[in-house]
Specification:
alpha+beta, 6 helices, 3-stranded antiparallel beta sheet, 23% strand, 7-stranded mixed beta sheet, 212 residues
Length: 212
């Protein structure tokens, strides 16, 4: 069943949209995932390894949140960063539109944005950012180690990349929207650029499934 969800999700977007990498020089980054973006895509496409797991992070109000806080609801989990120029805002807007389309059913879906740039994305900064998209969107941050652990669990690639001559940096990252069931188990992913309508199409049948 999981494989079917993954294949259906893959069919919803063009192959060219699977990855979003802001720079071609991730290999020069001082901090990056141990696996390449291509390896991670392969794991997700063919369900080669478990995806997801427990986490303890800090939300935009400064309170600790764990994965167990969201039991009984589907989760839409997205990894990105607030300084992301285009892909992150586009995908977060699609999530927000999907929630609006779901109407009252959206109460059973928890959207979560986990930063891959905890150095800049403090709770206060996340509070300003997530409010731009949807009132129910929860932003999570934490220590670099905590973010690395949850990113590894969800098979997320990210790498800090200095910008030449700017004294600043960007973050290369994969941009999948993970769909988790009411018990926190992985169901599949939506590739970057998936429309709100397509998300609703996949989510609605899952809302009829009870927690185990």
């Amino acid at each position: 069943m999981i494989a079917n969800v993954i294949r259906l999700a893959i069919a919803l977007a063009c192959v060219g949209l699977w990855l979003t990498l802001a720079s071609a020089h991730a290999g020069d980054a001082p901090t990056q995932s141990t696996r390449s973006a291509a390896e991670i895509m392969d794991i997700l496409m063919w369900n080669r390894e478990p995806v997801g797991g427990p986490f303890a992070l800090t939300d935009q109000t400064g309170h600790e949140r764990t994965d167990r806080d969201f039991r009984g609801r589907l989760m839409l989990v997205y990894f990105g960063f607030t300084y992301c120029p285009d892909v992150c805002p586009t995908d977060l807007q699609a999530i927000a539109l999907a929630l609006d389309e779901l109407g009252s059913d959206a109460d059973s879906v928890q959207p979560i944005f986990i930063t891959v740039d905890p150095e800049r994305d403090t709770s206060a900064h996340l509070a300003e950012y997530v409010s731009l998209f949807h009132p129910r969107l929860i932003g999570l941050t934490g220590s670099a180690d905590a973010i690395r652990k949850v990113a590894d669990a969800y098979k997320v690639y990210y790498a800090k990349v200095p910008l030449e001559g700017a004294g600043d940096y960007t973050v290369d990252h994969t941009a999948y929207i993970y769909l988790m069931d009411r018990d926190g188990n992985y169901l599949g992913f939506f590739p970057p650029g998936t429309s709100a309508d397509r998300m609703v199409e996949i989510i609605k049948p899952r809302l009829k499934e009870p927690a185990r």
